[in-house]
């Protein structure tokens, strides 16, 4: 049984019983208790289950409208989560960039992973991320534009009216933006100002790409900023379940 299938089965068991012990799940799935503990930890990290003594229980609200992201992680915390998956997602997304493109790179640790994978061709980069800008400022062969505004230390991003005014006059060929959650055909972030800015960027771009590892699928956050059906593709990873992929494909192309 693949990990994604096993974890989907765990959620089914929790949906039936609400709470399950490590031992009972291990016996029902014919796997080791250590494997179940690792699955519980990963599902808890994704916000789908809650660890309890000796087992886990399904978080309230997970089965309907997506599980709620309970708090906004810091930039450092996000960088440590799903790092391997983010690098692979970023590499595949960066392959879309062509010579002389004007490309927008949003804030977030998945987008930051695109920097090392960018093609060695002449093109223009626009970003509101100080972290992305810092990684690119020594790069030669491309034009680099930093959009200024009100600085959010939690995400290292510039947002607000000044940032929106700056982006409103620009032409963008391809926009690459991350998300905190994707569910029910909507793309979510934690902050309204960042969401409004990202909506404006997607609205300006000829091609729109969402980068979100599979832990973000089925989750919602505070602010829904764009419709999934209006993007060209979502780049995610192989841990996406068949059910999750089917849901996403009702709205857009899935690249994993």
From TrEMBL:
- What's one Pfam family here? HTH_DeoR
Keyword Transferase listed? The answer is no
Q: Which GO terms describe its molecular function?
A: DNA binding; DNA-binding transcription factor activity
Q: What does this protein do?
A: Repressor of the lactose catabolism operon. Galactose-6-phosphate is the inducer.
Q: What SMART domains does its record include?
A: DeoRC, HTH_DEOR
Which key words are in the record?
A: DNA-binding, Repressor, Transcription, Transcription regulation
Listed InterPro entries = Carb_Metab_HTH_regulators, DeoR-like_C, DeoR_HTH, NagB/RpiA_transferase-like, Tscrpt_reg_HTH_DeoR_CS, WH-like_DNA-bd_sf, WH_DNA-bd_sf
What name has this protein been given in UniProt? Answer: Lactose phosphotransferase system repressor
**Ranges where the HTH deoR-type domain occurs:** 3-58
Q: Which organism is it from?
A: Enorma shizhengliae
Q: Does the keyword Transcription regulation apply?
A: yes
Which superkingdom is the protein from? Bacteria
């Amino acid at each position: 049984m693949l990990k994604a299938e096993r974890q989907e089965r765990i959620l089914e068991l929790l949906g039936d019983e609400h709470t399950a012990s490590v031992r009972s799940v291990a016996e029902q799935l014919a796997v080791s208790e250590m494997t179940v503990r690792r699955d519980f930890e990963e599902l808890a990290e994704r916000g789908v289950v809650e660890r309890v003594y000796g087992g886990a229980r399904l978080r309230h609200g997970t089965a309907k409208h997506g599980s709620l992201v309970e708090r906004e992680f810091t930039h450092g915390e996000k960088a440590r989560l799903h790092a391997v998956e983010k690098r692979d997602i970023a590499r595949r997304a960066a392959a879309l960039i062509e010579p002389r493109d004007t490309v927008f790179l949003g804030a977030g640790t998945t987008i930051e992973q695109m920097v090392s994978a960018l093609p060695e061709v002449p093109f223009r980069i626009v970003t509101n991320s100080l972290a992305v800008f810092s990684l690119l400022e020594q790069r030669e062969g491309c034009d680099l534009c930093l959009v200024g505004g009100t600085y959010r230390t939690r995400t290292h991003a510039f947002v607000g009216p000044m940032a929106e005014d700056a982006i409103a006059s620009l032409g963008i060929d391809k926009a690459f933006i991350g998300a905190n959650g994707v569910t029910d055909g909507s793309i979510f972030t934690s902050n309204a100002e960042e969401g409004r800015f990202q909506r404006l960027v997607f609205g300006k771009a000829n091609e729109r790409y969402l980068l979100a590892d599979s832990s973000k699928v089925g989750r919602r956050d505070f602010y829904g900023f764009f419709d999934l059906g209006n993007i060209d593709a979502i780049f995610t990873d192989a841990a996406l379940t068949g059910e999750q992929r089917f849901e996403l494909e009702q709205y857009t192309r899935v690249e994993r």
